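U., I forgot to send this yesterday:
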Amino acid sequence: MNKIKNFINNNKALSWVLGFQLFRLILLPFMGLMPQDAYYYLYGQNLSLSYFDHPGMIGYILRIFTDVFGQTIFVIKFADFIITSLTILSFYKLASYFLSAKKLQRAIVLLASTLFISILSFNSTPDVPLLLFWTLSIICLYKAIFEEKKWFWIFGGIAMGLAFDSKYTAIVLQIGLLAFLLFSNKYRKLLISPWLWISIIISVAVTFPVWYWNYLNEFASFAFQGASRTDSITEFKFSPNFFFGAIGHQMFLLLPVLFLVFITFTFKYVKRALLKLRIPQAKTLFLLAFFVPTFVGFFILTPIYWVKLNWMMPSYITGIILAAMFISKKLLKIQVIFSIVFHVLFSLQILFYLAPIKSDDTWVGWKELSEEISLLQQEKTDTFVFSDDNYKTSACLNFFMEDRIYAQNIIGLPALHFDYLGDDLSSLKNKNAIFIDSDKRFKNSDKKGEHHPLLDTYFDKVTELSPIIIKVNGKESRKFWVFYCENYKPSLLSTDK
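Result:
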């Protein structure tokens, strides 16, 4: 009787998971290109040991999928969907080590119902492979520690290395592992085990391409990700907006019920540790070791630093397993209801673009922009195109257009990985250019009336043309200012730096 009951319960949970995943799969063909998709696709089309902003795993994945299935927007989204689906399967395996059958079903429904899984399924970011390799790392480390399967120390090292090759925040895996062993009375002896250090050495060896790329490029990526942010944190400027913004982001990604469960059990365990000096039992401590450094650590920073909404995502893996130990059936139902409502609203926005997005972080308008610029280049012949918004416009145009599209390095400004693509800007000497500038707060169809002052430095003459207006569903939704720049002078770049 219990087996029949468990089978029915399992099928209910499986139905919810498959339902959410089927919903996401159906939406994929309707998703337009996001700037992140285009930028990391650019990674894959310019293979390198690593890249300026992040390691290259997401770029390698997109390169494999687009080489096999074709260079389309759907294939890029499909790659994210497949990798995230593997993360869900890996999570289920991991959760089964800690939870009873009933709580395991709650855990998998909690995970599948979140908006962060939808975001990972639709949008190419380094977090997509990071979450997969993060989960696989914890599975391997569990088997190495609790099941004493020594070969899994090696597999764990490989997985931790691949997680770091996805995103630098994966360094917290090694920190969590050492913290668990340090605080665990039963397993502290493993700190002197050669298998532990073999695992860590292997993890470092797997990350060698990232370190070597940084070595060849004056550690530019590490400096970009670390130094500037450390400086901002050490300034210690209190900002309530940062704190409440972080809470809003986390409630959005996890949905309110799950987020509040996170806060509840975090407070419970921290209180026990600080006031009663009670260390949780080994398996719970293991889960907390991969939750607290990322979730609590970043939350501590939120009053003084703007923590991006995706930085806490790795903590969700073990956090949701812990949440499943506490959440009631009633609260789970409320979580699913919230999820359905948010996903329906999300789908309406995707399908009908009901609310305009005042940002370049949107999936609409990029293809239409490329078509308008192609027509403009037929009129203004022998021109190259560039933009100045870090990467968004340049990356999206690079995806849709045959010619190389350049970024703000054309006018001597830092341009993320565009600075490392190996473009010979001197070959553009004396050429004319079309400069694209997005009007993020689109209010009217007027010209801008002014232009970037550096354009006058690198070009003899700058003329503003009529702006490009992109219509979505018959409504004017996006606007791009356009400037015709004559006689490019790249020789000034060397003296300007």
